[in-house]
Amino acid sequence: MATRPSASASLRAFLDQWLFRLGPDRGRVVLQQRRIFILPTRTGLLFALALVVMLLGAINYDLSLGHALVFLLAGLGLVAMVHTFRNLVGLSLSFGRLEPVFAGDNVHLPIYLENSRADARRALDFSAWGRDLGTWEVEGGNQGVATLALGTEHRGRFTPPRLTLASHYPLGLFRAWSYLQPATSCLVYPRPLTLPLPPREPSRRGSDPGGSHGQEDFAGLRPRQPSDSTRHIAWKAAARDDGQRPLLVKQFAGGAARELLFSWAALPPDMDEETRLSALTGWVLQADALGQPYLLQLPQRQLGPATGPTHRDACLQALALHGLEGTFSSDPEEEGEHGPGHA
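The structure corresponding to this sequence follows.
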């Protein structure tokens, strides 16, 4: 039976949503005053303490120039605070598409920055999981791209963590920051394990009675279709035609078509689940590189036999999400400092 959240937990969630804007950011995000926070840095606190000491000395010794110097430096600090805040306010951001990767590789998140003001935005620092991800700047009236490398460890669906955009510009006396939560995700495939391909199985589709789609003997040339693999293109014939005719592909005849069977049950019984998924991923990539038809058999699921990028992507997606109910979190409070984990 589900438990009802406590009043304190509900209040905290409400304050987080209202104060820190923790909801997913979709489309174009413009940093307004309510999304930007600013506090003095350690350097700023030491600067303020030094001003207090100087002011006390000026009062004690009745130094007019001492008072003038203190107030001048205090004004400089206030001006620095305004410029630190202005370095972020009004900045527009939008998030690009994430491409699938293999477990252990970095997900590259493009963030498009648009500066509509005439003055440049300097020293824009991005961070996540308590780690710095890089520093960028955008000239006045221009656009820029900040590409963040986010590490992955496990397969599944990766959701970027909450990002922090901060700036100490121009004097480092204050730190202004804003939180960003990209509303995007991508698949993380199992890390491929290279093993010898299993023996081919007789095709379940049967041999071609016309003898025009076998893989044994060369039978001639025909015009290329969009679905034909580039490995069968007759490049020598294309060179002779000097590109004046449509591309031709080689036809083969003879021999019954055979397909590769990648079965979960065929792997050694002492192999754990993640290693099995890595082995199947390696087989799928090898078969796709060779242009061979293959069939993927998982518990309660079967894909193929087929070839091509569409079949490959479907198999990799099935392997990435096998046994996972949904997306996995990338909250450092739930997963530690090393990034995402399983659902």
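The two ends are 21 Å apart (CA to CA).
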